[in-house]
Predict the 3D structure of the following.
Amino acid sequence: MLICPSVLACDFTDLKYQVEEITKYADWLHYDVMDGHFVPNISFGPAILKDIKKISDLFMDVHLMVSDPEYYAKVFYDAGADLITFHLEALKGEDEALNLIRKIQLMGIKAGISIRPKTDVRLLDNILKEVDLVLVMSVEPGFGGQSFIESSLDKLDYLSNYKKDYGLSYIIEIDGGVSDKNAKAIIEHGGEALVAGSYVFKGNIKENIERLRNI
Ligand code: DX5
Ligand code: ZN
């Protein structure tokens, strides 16, 4: 299991301490980029990622919720991303998605694809053999602190069966409303990387991460 705290839920008056804590106890740092266009919220850009990298050697898992992922993939590669995940819905179809996956991989980092809760997971079929990670959104992207959408577990089933059936190696990540209440079910249904924002940053970061890890 990979625990990936989303710094969107940080207390930004105390960013340094919180990044140091997750660097000690978590596996990846999940960095949610929102452009106010693909989603109705704005988060943060590349400058903050560059600063975070000065104090953390965590694997930087960048989730682009932007209308122009092709442009921003390069921007966040330059800022130090180790993995860039973009949304299928931001592009015109699977050919564009496959091109962007190749472009990101040619930069020498990992490429992920994500879908909104209402998007049919089968639209990913022709992409799954090329991609390094699939991010299932278990809330409508845009805001932290929402409730987990239970039907996301069906998408995890589909992706883990597909992965086994075709001998593929993509990582299955889930993002939104993840907590100690649903982590067990997520793992049982094939989730491998768990993004958690509010759950990790509310209260004691170390204890929250350990509770998730020991589920
Ligand atoms: C939502 C983001 C998530 C979110 C997770 O658009 O992609 O990463 O911040 O936050 P919680 O865990 O609070 O749902
Ligand atoms: Zn995210």
User: Anything to note?
Assistant: Residues 152-166 form the longest helix (15 residues).
